[in-house]
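Lab channel / #folding
Pinned by the channel admin:
"Please post every new chain as: sequence first, then the structure tokens as a reply. Keep commentary short and put observations after the output so the thread stays searchable."

First post following the new format, from NK:
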Amino acid sequence: MQNQRLMHQLNSDQLAIQRQYDQLSTGRRVLSISDDPAAAAQAISLQRGVSRTEQMVRNANSVEAFYQSADVTLDKVDGAIIEARGAAVEAAQSVLSDDQREALAMTIRQQMEAVVSAGNAMFADHQILGGILETDAALEHLSGTVRFNGSQAIGQTKLGDGALTEFTVTAASAIGVGEPFIQGQSLGASLNENTRLIDMRQGEGVQPGVLTVSDGSNFVELDLRQAATIGDVADMFRSVDLDGRSLSFTIGPDSVTVQYADGLPGTLAIRDSEGSRLSSDLLIANPQGFRPPPLVGDRLSPQVTLGTPIADLNNGAGLDLTDGIVIDRGSDRYTIDFSDAETVGDVIIAINRSDAEVRAVLNETSGSIEVHGLRAGVDYSIGENGGQAATQLGIRTADEDTLVSELARGRGLRLNPEGPDLVITRPDGIELELELEDVSTVGDIVDLIRNHPDNQDTQRVLVDLNSVGNGLQLSVPPGADPIRVSQPGVSDAGTYLGWIEPGEASAEGEIQGAFMVLDGRDYQPRDSGGAIDTLLRLETAIRDGDISEIGRLQQRLDEDLDTSTRTRGRVGVWHSALQDSRTAVENENVLLQSQLSDAMDADLAAVISELQARQAALEASMRFIGQTSGITVLNYL
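Reply from TO:
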């Protein structure tokens, strides 16, 4: 027994010494959870914090490199636009030779190539401006134009407090590529039984809850916490019985009406239970019953979403998209068929799947469709295909509401100060002289023609928007001469209303069936927008010596420079915030490391002192074992 006890003591001393050596070699006091469970649990939590902060710092370093690359890219864009702006100012002179104009045009071409190169810049196998995770070139040259093949996807990462932070910019925000060339009008969704509560009030939603309905003497509680649609709410109200009187719940295009089904007066109180606001959201709350029925809640029209049925648009009247639309891209025309479309999302998919190189998106804030052009250097327009689909969708690019000040690409019409601005000569020789000084819209010009005192007989000139595409059509019964449109003096009204070719003073119609017809061109083609589009048009304008167009494009260059500069400034703000965030995270990491050290690290002085004590105890144990190992029975005789 004594030998066993001595061997156990020897083993215990050796293990203790080994533990001290382990603490000396690792610098850690707690080597396993059993050493100190409380400290180990605290250490695990602290280690998670340390790992998180270290990852945040790595994220910040990576994002900082991306910011620096984006700044270099945007600096190249700024420099190219500034150089192009200087060349445009020089090209605006009217006394330049063809060689000088060609040299300036080549300068613009070089700057355009610089912007394209910057738009295709890469960082760590990702596009800087062409969309995160995109690896192929975002911009591609095609037949004198440039097509955008990238995306507007934004990269996000966690920094600082762990919230998602953007770390990329898009080509749209930096160089204007893929800007919308038409921002449509509201599609006007209406309420119906299937309208979701979360979509009502233009997306603010209606919160389901519990309410009480009363006639002053009887009370009925309606638990609508599981209601998903306004139809569910209506069904519950219609099931109410107040002393033999039922309720009517009527759903209008943007309102609901609650009253007694018999239409007779009476007290009708509606009160939300504590914590509920359903009747308040529906604007039918009447807690004291002071308002006599009917109780009407209005301005409840739902938000337009991709799932909104076409039949619910136009304030419930629906849209007739049977004939589809046409999209013109340069000289190419594309017909979009909506025959299978049932929702707004179907309409957008049909547009995006066409070969027109456009991207349609739903702006849920305004409830409208935006169409973006993906090809720089060409004109875009959206018109009808024999029906009213483009108009009803709110995306027809030229209609009677077009402002005259927006014609000629925003420069407006040049009028004739010494007489009429436009003269339409009918086949019977009657001249319709039009002065356009006081007109505001294309529709006003249409009214001038229709209401002209010399155009009220059976031979009158009819004017209307083209049934296919865009433009204005003049039609009249044929006579001795063709219908003729001229623009006297310095007027360019006929040219920019689409009837007269540039450089010409007049145009004549031709026989189409039983009428003499003059079909006008699209009077408001849209630029695709962005710095590259501006530079491509500027190169052409300089070669053509088009001083007016050069002046317009100079203003566009200023806008493009502002766009790029603002984006670069935004990146600079992000970079500054990133540095502050990284510093905070690094400080947090140091604090966590300190706390982890306090919980886990060994006190070397105490460990050495205890090691020496353990070694002395081990030596004593070994001497004692040596002494006792020689004892025999003779020692006790």
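NK: Residues 37-91 form the longest helix (55 residues).
TO: also worth noting, The mean pLDDT is 88.
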